Amino acid sequence: HVKNNINDTIGSDHAPHLKANKDKEYPNSPSGMPGVQTLMPVMLNHVNDGKLSLNQLMNLVCENPIKIFGIKNKGFIKEGYDADFTIVDMNKKIVIKNEKIESKCGWSPFNDVEFKGTPVATIIAGKTKMKGGKILGEPEGTPLEFN
């Protein structure tokens, strides 16, 4: 469905619940899973497999959400917009490991799965905040503005 442009957006559904809580039988376990750190490797792997184009991925995770929610100064690389972007290596292979998950939960449903294509740097407001898989500096942010 993604390749045929049926979906408008893709998000991480980042819900970093502890494994002890997720291991409970549903409905006693919380819904969702950690995903912010694995979204791009999963989706870049799909691009490499021909399931969607890189341009479609950019629309799904950057441009379309900004248009749908009316967020100002985000989603595009152009003058007057925040300098937020991710640099990816489409050929770099990585294996997701629970011990490398940055969220407090410390696990991923993709543990021990190999992906081709991964972010190598993330720039937020012109500052490098992730490089080579390592988070840099302290968390910071500014409120979003809406149209």
UniProtKB/TrEMBL annotation:
InterPro entries: Amidohydro-rel, DHOase/Allantoinase_Hydrolase, Dihydroorotase_CS, Metal-dep_hydrolase_composite, Metal_Hydrolase. GO terms for cellular component: cytoplasm. SUPFAM superfamilies: Composite domain of metallo-dependent hydrolases, Metallo-dependent hydrolases. GO terms for molecular function: allantoinase activity; metal ion binding. It comes from the Bacteria. Residues 14-26 have a biased composition (Basic and acidic residues). It holds the Pfam family Amidohydro_1. Belongs to the metallo-dependent hydrolases superfamily. DHOase family. Class I DHOase subfamily. Catalyzes the reversible cyclization of carbamoyl aspartate to dihydroorotate. GO terms for biological process: purine nucleobase catabolic process. Its cofactor is Zn(2+). PANTHER family: ALLANTOINASE. Residues 1-10 have a biased composition (Polar residues). PROSITE patterns: DIHYDROOROTASE_2. Residues 3-128 form the Amidohydrolase-related domain. Residues 1-32 are annotated as: Disordered. Keywords: Hydrolase, Metal-binding. This is Possible dihydroorotase.
